[in-house]
Amino acid sequence: MRRKTLSLALVTLLTLCGGQFVGAGIVTFDFTNSTPTFNGGTTFSNLSNDNNLVIRWGSIANVGGTNIDLVATVTGDAYKANNIGSGKVALNGLSGGPVSLFRYARINLRNDHAATFAFTLVDPDNNDSQVFGDFDFSVLDIDSGPAGPDGGRALPAAGIESVQLISQNGTATWATSGNTELTLTPTPTTPGPNWAAPVITAAQPFFGAGAPWENVPNPTDPSNLTPEQVARTVAFSFVNTSSFELRLGIGPGGKINEFNWDDGGRNFLFTGSISAVPEPTTVLIWSMLAGLGMTVRRRR
């Protein structure tokens, strides 16, 4: 694992693409035309919070005639989602606005909990065979609740989000912007007391929220992020990989007027891109320049 701290401009290229590499064959994951399904087929997430969650985002890309779906499966820890109001696990799926133009994949997690998800690229037209290649995958909007005392909320902030790369079946690098607000070690309230502290190694980097959500709106368009939104993003670049595992965690939410905000939750947003460049030498060049580039092949 090699840590890369990039300039704001290059991180924007790595994490967002936004059509800037169209001429080089880069294809952004397209969630606007994807219909997420849950645990094998339901088109809406009406599962109980105790279910082991499987989310499939269908038809997020087509590379050289190969359709690609993204599947996220809980592999460790007990998954829990927002338990306030009618939201619950229905908050999983897509995020962005307006509704007709959802831009991101979204996973909702309850405060003071963690869950490990295996993300896998599969070919739905070939018995879900895994699609191996080089691609980038970004996690955005890594922040927390209000900082400091706020009606009894936890200090130094409530609901601190964190992401940790657990494993991958190829090689990986990661990148943050030069003005990143993310921290590489847990704070006193990340993790929370109800789940085990992450074991951080050079191959399992950790990224925790270093700033509250206040004054920075949630991103809605991957091609149009503010510098503050980019500063709350981490981009993973995978080589010769079809799957990887991320551990998502959120610290305690605190209490307001005796109301337990640990029943609430927060959202993780994802985007990414792959390359359809067919020539190996071209793939190598683009991999060196941008950490992207994808020569698709399938392994059963």
Plain-language structure description:
- The protein contains three helices and 18 strands.
- It starts with a strand and ends with a strand.
- The strands form two sheets. It has a 16-stranded mixed β-sheet that branches.
- It is mainly beta and 300 residues long.
- The protein has a single domain (2-299), classed as Major cell-surface adhesin PAc (Sandwich), CATH 2.60.530.
- The model is unreliable at 1-24, 150-154 and 277-300 (pLDDT under 50).
- The protein is globular.
- A hairpin with a 2-residue loop joins β4 and β5 (66-76).
What are the key terms here?
300 residues, mainly beta, Major cell-surface adhesin PAc, 8% helix, 39% strand, globular, disordered N terminus
What's the quick description here?
It is built from 3 helices and 18 strands. With 300 residues, it is mainly β.
Distance between the termini: 26 Å
CATH topology: Major cell-surface adhesin PAc
Query: How many strand units?
Result: 18
Coarse structural class: mainly beta
Portion of residues in beta strands equals 35-45%
Task: Please estimate the helix content.
Answer: under 10%
What multimeric state do the chains show?
single chain
If classified by CATH, what would the architecture be? Sandwich
Instruction: List segments where confidence is low: pLDDT < 50 over at least 5 consecutive residues.
Output: 1-24, 150-154, 277-300
What is the global morphology? globular
